[in-house]
Amino acid sequence: MALSLSIEKLLKNVKKSLAIVFRPSRKLRLKNIDLLRTLINATSCCSRCGLLYGEPREGASTSVKGICHICGQEALLKDTRHYAYLRKGVKKLSDSVRH
Ligand SMILES: [Zn+2]
Question: Where are the beta strands (DSSP E) in 1-99?
């Protein structure tokens, strides 16, 4: 029983990876557009998202506990200003969305 379950899981994963390889799909593109919109609209974010999509700036900054505008997790948030307005991520995503 456990074996058949794990095979099923494996097949599912294989299918998933095949889908990614063979269809750089509309779905992914829509997801990127969504993320792009989120990055543009975000006014504050957690340090994980800030480092992922932006570049940290030197200098003092205040952190407030709250829900990250990007990943939705509760964390210490900073203004996106402190991550150069997430321009790195915005640029990368707009490039990937534009064909
Ligand atoms: Zn986040």
Answer: 44-46, 64-67, 74-79
In degrees and rounded to multiples of 5, residue 59 shows phi and psi of 110, 165
Of 83, 96, 28, 82, nearest to 53 (Cα)? 83
Residue-wise pLDDT for 40-53, tens only, equals: 999 999 999 999 99
Q: What is the pTM of this model?
A: 0.70
Query: How far is the centre of ligand 1, averaged over its atoms, from the C-alpha of 74 (Å)?
Result: 8
Distance CA 28, CA 25 (A): 5
Q: Say if CB 86 and CB 53 are below 8 A apart.
A: yes
Residues with CB under 5 A from ligand 1 (ion): 46, 49, 68, 70-71
Q: What is the mean pLDDT of residues 7-32?
A: 76
Q: Which of the four pLDDT bands, split at 50, 70 and 90, describes residue 18?
A: low
Measured CA distances, 65 to 46, 47, 71, 89 (Å): 9, 12, 14, 23
